[in-house]
Write a structure and sequence with these properties.
With 356 residues, this protein is α/β, with parallel strands linked by helices. It is built from 15 helices and twelve strands.
Length: 356
């Protein structure tokens, strides 16, 4: 599938560009004033995956290739962005291009960094961001309902059904609801996704601060409401971005970078899985939507493999490692032959047999 895109959004001066710089190790403008970032900075990063490393070692691969995510550092939104306040319309248009959103919410206290709000309150800041996205979606949906008028008068059933779905979405939005959280049915999701609505995008909430700076009441609220969140001292992770695992431990940091956890979480919320191919030439991780078939996996590798698909030879990566390699796994009957409709599982090592 095409490269995944995650938009980093937040109010001004909450740590968005620092987070972006830490993730991508790219130098961007982090000046201490609102709107220092106008065009979204774009960086492509590898999804951390230990399976690629161990399989490459097992099969003596010449090359390792991980899956990737594209991060967009989008300039700070302000209250009124949906009406064009600040540079709002441009920023909101940039969010449309993302598959998912990371909300960076300020939880740190630092008098040296300008706070555009009157106090530190991640829940309030989340509501401000939500409302700007909701208001923009109200505008988009209202215009589309109006545009369907001619087709509805002409008796087109599809237009009537589309209007009904859009009207339901409009009712939710006008109540201040985020559409992604409303458990919409498949048909509603399909129609609404066609408009790249901002509140239809999956999101992760990043509470930027030290653990002791984040009130328990805030953590409890996010847990209770089922909002996927990560707490992280972004500045600390930025400073530790180049450290090895051993160096992190020596400095009293967690073994796994919070940045790696963020990247993995971003991958998970989009309901994506990874399958792998491995051999002497390369070990590679490939991205698929959950529930995809073996023929879809073949097409991800090369379109001709899907057209001329014969079968897939499949083994779980851990089973392959425990067996000690393909020869041993084959001898023990651990490699399965699957057809076109096989539902690929996360961690499958696949070899496509084709007539291309």
């Amino acid at each position: 599938m095409s490269k995944l895109s995650i938009g980093i959004v937040g109010l001004p001066n909450v740590g968005k560009s620092t987070l972006f710089q830490a993730i991508t190790k790219k130098q961007v403008d982090r000046a201490n004033y609102p709107f220092c970032t106008i065009d979204p900075n774009v960086g492509v990063v590898a999804v951390p995956d230990e399976r690629v490393d161990v399989l490459a070692q097992l099969t003596h691969s010449a090359k390792k290739v991980c899956t990737t995510i594209e991060f967009l550092d989008i300039a700070g939104l302000v209250k009124g962005a949906s009406q064009g306040e600040g540079l709002g319309n441009k920023f909101l248009a940039n969010i449309r291009e993302a598959d998912a959103i990371v909300y960076v919410l300020r939880a740190f206290s630092d008098p040296n960094i300008v706070n555009t709000q009157s106090s530190i309150d991640p829940s309030r800041d989340k509501e401000i961001l939500d409302m700007e996205l909701i208001l923009k979606d109200v505008e988009t949906v209202s215009k589309r309902i109006e545009g369907l008028g001619k087709d509805i008068k002409g008796g087109k059933k599809e237009a009537v059904r589309e209007r009904d779905i859009l009207s339901h979405a409009l009712q939710l939005l006008e109540k201040g609801e985020v559409l992604f959280e409303k458990g919409l049915v498949e048909e509603e999701r399909r129609v609404l996704n066609g408009y790249q609505l901002l509140t239809m995008k999956p999101r992760i909430y990043l509470l930027n601060g030290r653990e002791k700076e984040i009130p328990q009441s805030t953590s409890r609220e996010f847990q209770t409401r089922g909002w996927p969140y990560i707490s992280m001292d972004v500045q600390e992770e930025f400073e530790a971005a180049g450290l090895t695992v051993e160096e992190r431990v020596a400095f009293g940091l967690s073994r796994e970078s919070r940045l790696d956890r963020l990247i993995k979480t971003a991958y998970d919320i989009l309901h994506l899985i990874t399958f792998l191919t491995t051999g002497e030439d390369e070990t590679r991780a490939w991205t698929l939507c959950e529930g995809s078939t073996a023929v879809a996996a073949a097409g991800t590798i090369h379109s001709d493999f899907a057209k001329h698909f014969i079968k897939a030879e499949v083994i779980n990566w851990k089973t392959l490692m425990d067996a000690g390699g393909f020869s041993q796994a084959r001898e023990r009957g651990l490699i399965r032959t699957e057809g076109k409709e096989y539902a690929v599982r996360d961690g499958d090592v696949i070899e496509i047999k084709h007539a291309a």
